[in-house]
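Justification of computing resources. Each target in the renewal requires a structure prediction run like the one illustrated here; the chain below, 119 residues long, is used simply to show the kind of job we budget for.
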Amino acid sequence: QVQLVESGGGLVQPGGSLRLSCAASGRIVSILRMGWYRQAPGKQRELVAGITSTGSTNYADSVKGRFTISRDNAKKTVYLQMNSLKPEDTAVYYCNADLQTYSSRRDYWGQGTQVTVSS
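Resulting structure tokens:
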């Protein structure tokens, strides 16, 4: 059984910072790609940032220069450092991992963590 457990969400004022973490556990052979998505009320889920097993990253245009994704392969953990937060960053943030277990390769999702940017 594979689990992705997120932490670090909360309420922050505009211009503030938050750091999200997502730890993978279970019978994992390898994690190929990890990423963060978000979904605001009434909107589709969108990619925020992704990182490969070799450290290559990609970002949504709306967060470039403000958010940084990183990962610790030994801890099977991905992080999202969010700086200069804006009200439009308010959303539920989901961790995603493309990983190989002993039986299959597929996408897994975390349960989501709420980020609210408001004064």
